[in-house]
Amino acid sequence: MTVADSIQPSLQKNADSPIRRSLRSLRRNPMAMLGLIIILFWAVAAAIAPFTSMRDPLAQVIEDRLQPPSAQYWFGTDELGRDVFSRVIYGARISLPIGFVVIIFAMTMGMLVGASAGYIGGMYDLLIMRLADITLAFPSIVLALAIAAVLGPSITNALIAMVLVWWPEYARLMRSQVLSVKNNEYVMAAVALGASRGRVLRIHILPNTFAPILVKASLDAGSAILNIAALSFIGLGAVPPTPEWGAMISTGRYQFYSWWLTTFPGLAILMVVLGYNFLGEGVRDSFDPRMT
Predict the structure, then answer these.
(1) Which residue, of 34, 103, 196, 233, is most buried by count of CB atoms within 10 Å of its CB?
(2) Angle formed by the axes of helices 84-120 and 155-181, to 10°?
(3) Which residue, 217, 207, 118, 104, is CA-closest to 171?
(4) Count of beta carbons in the 10 Å neighbourhood of residue 184
């Protein structure tokens, strides 16, 4: 056995140990596990919605309109006699993927733009960062509202608005991470050996800058769901009769004495947002060297 062969397993073990320590720390965090359980609960409920919901969420039974919660209607009925329980369960099929899709697209766009700006530098970096500064100068929900109003009310347009609002945050974070590692010895060695810019970014820089992006994404997922619900609440997201939680709260606000119309979708939003926040806090702590 050569010296290199004897050293390789040790190097591999040491390279994997930070990830393993982070995962162990995450599993030991009770709040993170609680958040994961909440998210999985709603994910399973959304997946088996056709089997758990008692009625069609779009079916109207006018003679049973505005019925309070009972054994027949667990969460009551709305102004058109639709079952609120079924609509809340089916609403998870819309609200849960929304947070995931917004974060994935905003994170991907921000990572690509920010990494290229930090590595290439020069005028390209200046233009990208000034565009990010202009976007970040406006409150995110206000700018998203303006973009969604221009595009028109729909879930797709609300998603586009949120992605256009949130990518600069990921771009600036990724740029700062790239600037902190691009002058390290292993990056300079790869450049000296003739590696292309794309290969250096893909192989040597991005894997060493991804942890802060992942932490931010886990913390932002709940905010994405909340903001999309807010856009639906003011009529710029889901359009009736789509069973989306924000739209359900919007229609229920006119029925002051029918408290169940807003309470149950509001509690669903609260649970999911708290679940993502608990999990995001756990992911942040697990990647903190002081915590692991």
Answers:
(1) 103
(2) 30
(3) 118
(4) 13
Structural domain count of the chain? 1
Domain around 161: 32-43+76-286
CATH of residue 166: 1.10.3720.10
pLDDT digits (tens, 9 = 90+) for 70-123: 888 888 888 888 989 989 999 888 888 888 889 999 999 998 888 888 888 888
Provide the residue count of the chain.
292
Which are the contacts of 76, defined by CB distance < 8 A and separation ≥ 6?
A: 66, 67, 68, 69, 70, 84, 258, 260, 261, 264
Per-residue pLDDT tens digits for 130-185:
999 898 888 888 888 899 889 888 888 889 999 999 999 999 998 888 888 877 77
d(CA 138, CA 158): 17
DSSP class of 63: G
Give yes or no for a cis peptide into 153 (omega within 30° of 0).
no
The first and second tokens of residue 132, run together, are: 């990010």
- Answer yes or no: are the C-beta atoms of 79 and 104 closer than 8 Å: no
Asked if residues 57 and 66 have their Cβ atoms less than 8 Å apart, the reply is no
Question: What does the alpha-carbon distance between residue 249 and residue 130 come to, in Å, rounded to a whole number?
Answer: 38
26 falls within a domain = no
